[in-house]
Predict the structure.
Amino acid sequence: MVSPLTGRVRFVWTLAVVSLIWVAEPVFAQSSSGLPLASRSPAPAGRDEILDYLRRRVIERPDDAQAWRMLGKSLAERGDPESAREALERALTLEPTNAAAHYDLGRLLEKEGEAQSAANHLARVTSLVPESEYAAEARRLLETLPVPTEDESFVLASYEIKRFDGSELTNDLEVDALRAIEPRDPLSMRIETGVLYNTNVALSPTNRNFVADGAGSPQVVFNPSAEYRIVNTDDWRAGPLGTGYFTINNGEFSDLNLQSYLGGLFVERSLPVDGATLVPRLQYAYTLDQFAGSTFGRRHAVAASLTSVWDNLDTTVAYYSVDSTNLKSDGGNPSITSQDGVTQAVGIAHTWWLDRREIRSATLGVDGQRADLEGSDFAFDAAFVYGAAVFPLTDILTLTLEGGGGYRDYYAAPSPPSRNQTILRGSSRLELALTEHWTVAGVFSAERLDSAEETLRTSRLIGGILAIYQY
């Protein structure tokens, strides 16, 4: 019979072993010296105590990425790959740059026969800690695996490329409605190009979240959009539309060079009524996003809107949209990590055309969103309010200020800590008209996401110079 004293001594030694592994492994991950990876394995004695301790640890501190990672590793060693995978995925959700978790998950996926996903995680190890023993072993394993594709550690898939609320959509619909009530060439086109600095380049048009430790880089941007009216009468307009968004980042982040293609169809009608012209519009669009030529995600979206252009040139826009998103990677446990699913949005905005010397126009809008996604960590309800004002500084120089805020409720995510986020954004645009078609603009925008869960707190700043051609 084991005496109580012997039991207590064994438990103390078990905790000491766990603590030693906990402290030592991140050090080994950052060092090019030390014991070979292949020679390091936990002693058989005390495994049950270690596993029990780690299980209690993740219950007490569900935001502890290292505890989830150690639990995943222990479960893998115990021959429970499904539970191990879930724990390692949870570690990477909490800490996307945890090289040891990427390594452990890569090895597990390799043994489970998922060669492509294994290669992606092992490649991430080599980029995060290139001089470590983990990276050396990962490179050896990569010699027998497929070529890595996109980085699966990114928490990626939004409604717009630049904003989380519906302000860009309502602005575009407002512009389309104003064009609808004027005689016009069947082709309308806009091209923006320039140089920006972006502190979070891993954001794509299908992306509803920032990467917590997003990479910052100077980037060249090219953003063309066009609409052609095959049907172009006083009452009806219909035809194809297209938009692209392309970036070239600094060489270090060339794997995040974005190519986004959107193509679709629209139909709209002008309906004169007392005091206004109503413009109902129905639009379908298909979006394909790629990073460095590798497909990241696809989306089908339908938007129905009604814009009222009042006789005093004020405008009111109401819309409903629904989109279906399909990302190439669903993560290791789709019921938790998948961002595939349907998102619905409804909103309304009003613009007052003031046409005064000190202020030209002002806009106020609200919208709500529901993302019914497969992964419990990413399904959310959200509400936003936003506004904008245009100030004419001279006949050819204007300043536009915009801002907004909102709240996301991740209703299906486990807690604590809560994954719910507060989102704030603001931007300015100083635009100089050079000719009828050409303008240049200095732009700056800031976005911030706050959450009780520390790993979900992040931000993005963008600033630079753009040249704009509009026809």
